[in-house]
Amino acid sequence: MAQLAGVRQQFVKVAMTAPFLERDEEHALAVRWKDAHDEHALHHLAHAHMRLVIALATRFRHYGLPVADLIQEGHVGLLEAAARFDPEREVRFSTYATWWIRASMQDYILRNWSIVRGGTSSAQKALFFNLRRMRARLSQNAATHGNASVFAEIAQAIGVSRADVEIMDARLSGSDVSLNASINVSDETSSERVDFLVDDKPLPDVIVEENIDADRRVDWLRDALSTLSEREFRIVCERRLTENSATLEAIGARLGISKERVRQIENRAIEKLRFILRSRYPLESLDILS
């Protein structure tokens, strides 16, 4: 590890001492690479601009990722810039390459800063990389008017909603937490965070199965009910198939019969339904009228 660190330090030292290129020399190297694919010219052009990669990498060091990895990603961006650079546009290569180097580093940070993917849109990326700076600039405002005012101002400046600013601020204020991290439940016992994420609800396949079975049983019951007489159907519906079932007395009063007669008709109708269901669906329908 110490040897690797020494190699990196030597690389940075060499890169920082590389001579600057004059405009004409830079243009000549870019033309040789573009027209003749001269790899020596590409190496010379990239080597002379590695100090630019290192300078940009140090600006992103506060995101907690190794500077050496940022430099490596920046070098990828530098080579991409060299592949796309048009020397005839009269633009300095360093100006053009800065955008590609920064974009490469930012993409690396977004992919590795957290296990939760974020900043997928251009507005979200701008929010991620500018929130801390803007909040620091508006810190006096926050002390006077509160966070809500600051979040609203940042949201307007970047072009996102205030809710997005609040969520990003919460993400940047904390760090990823392992589900296997220990939590002290009491003085003697401890658990892992994952233990508190157990969902007691049925699994999706069980829910779907139950819904399908319920629909099928409704169809069976509807088919069996069609065999009842009008009075039997009315009594069964009012006694068994409504949320607030009617009393025997109330049904008897509406039909002009005694409550005992209502009970007899109900029992006979239920037995008829059981017989029909068992005869047509002998195994599946045993618990429909239980």
Topology, please?
Elements: H1 2-16, H2 23-36, H3 39-48, H4 50-59, H5 67-84, H6 93-112, H7 122-137, H8 139-145, H9 147-158, H10 162-173, E1 182-184, E2 190-192, H11 204-225, H12 230-240, H13 248-255, H14 259-280
Antiparallel strand pairs: 1-2
Q: Numbering strands along the chain, what is their spatial order in the largest sheet?
A: 1-2
CATH top level of the largest domain is Mainly Alpha
Structural class: mainly alpha
Poorly predicted spans: none
Q: Which series of helices and strands comes N to C?
A: HHHHHHHHHHEEHHHH
Helix content range of the residues, please?
Answer: 55-70%
Return the average pLDDT rounded to an integer: 80
Strand content of the residues, in percent? Answer: under 5%
Distance between the termini: 72 Å
Number-wise, the strands total 2
| Biggest beta-sheet profile | 2 strands, antiparallel
Number of helices: 14
Summarize the structure.
The chain is mostly helical and 290 residues long.
Give the tags.
290 residues, mainly alpha, Four Helix Bundle (Hemerythrin (Met), subunit A), Arc Repressor Mutant, subunit A, 14 helices, 68% helix, 2% strand, elongated
Please, could you describe this protein's structure?
It is built from 14 helices and 2 strands. It starts with a helix and ends in a 10-residue tail after the last helix. The longest helix has 22 residues, at 204-225. A two-stranded antiparallel sheet has the order 1-2. The protein has helices at 2-16, 23-36, 39-48, 50-59, 67-84, 93-112, 122-137, 139-145, 147-158, 162-173, 204-225, 230-240, 248-255, 259-280, and strands at 182-184, 190-192. The mean pLDDT is 80. It is elongated and about 110 Å long. It is mainly α and 290 residues long. Strand 1 and strand 2 (190-192) form a beta hairpin. The protein has 3 domains: 6-112, Up-down Bundle (Four Helix Bundle (Hemerythrin (Met), subunit A)); 117-198; 204-280, Winged helix-like DNA-binding domain superfamily/Winged helix DNA-binding domain (Arc Repressor Mutant, subunit A), CATH 1.10.10. Helix 4 crosses helix 5 (67-84).
